[in-house]
Design brief:
Strand content: 15-25%
CATH topology: Protein-Tyrosine Phosphatase, Chain A
Largest sheet: 6 strands, mixed
Number of helices: 6
Distance between the termini: 45 Å
Order of helices and strands: HEEHEHEHEHEEEH
Radius of gyration: 17 Å
Structural class: alpha/beta
Shape: globular
CATH architecture: Alpha-Beta Complex
Low-confidence stretches: none
Length: 169
């Protein structure tokens, strides 16, 4: 609205994406892009999958979990959304806090038939990367920009983007 076009284009070139919101973390050796998103609610998970789906020629591979000491009702909802909208699902740990991580995963898996259960988040990410083909897209959901995994009363260093890059190297 009255601004100089060249100035506007110059400013657009300097825009940075929001960390942890459909952030393309890495392109795997097979050519599959891996995106990290903070989606940790049923609505957000559905929106993230639906945003990537039109760009996916192969399978949409989803790695996600649910936080402990939080709304337990969303776990089966998220499992059902994952099973319905993703082609390959790996359920993993995501800030279990004081809860038993296996119990959290079990609640998700109850509504996600065929999903894999890989508790270790690093191992789940590595499994998704090794599973992905050139036409696939990997979505790593739940932690986004977070820099730690909350287990009990400790925050263990964990960055989805950094781990994805390490696993893809």
């Amino acid at each position: 609205t009255g601004g100089d076009v060249s100035t506007t284009l110059g400013n657009l070139a300097r825009l940075q994406p929001v960390r942890g919101r459909l952030e393309r973390a890495v392109i795997t050796k097979s050519g599959a892009p891996l995106y990290v998103d903070y989606a940790h609610t049923p609505d957000a998970l559905e929106a993230a999958i639906e945003a990537l789906r039109p760009h996916c020629k192969g399978r949409l591979i989803l790695v996600f979990g649910a936080g402990g000491d939080r709304d337990t009702g969303k776990r089966p909802e998220m499992g059902a959304i994952a099973a319905q909208l993703a082609d390959y699902v790996i359920v993993t740990d995501d800030n279990p806090r004081s809860e038993d991580p296996a119990a959290i995963r079990t609640a998700i898996l109850a509504t996600a038939p065929g999903a894999r259960d890989i508790g270790g988040r690093r191992e789940a990410i590595a499994a998704a990367i090794s599973e992905a083909g050139p036409d696939d897209i990997i979505l790593l959901a739940g932690k986004g920009h977070e820099q730690g995994q909350i287990v009990g009363d400790r925050i263990l260093p964990f960055d989805d983007v950094a781990v994805a890059r390490e696993c893809a190297a």
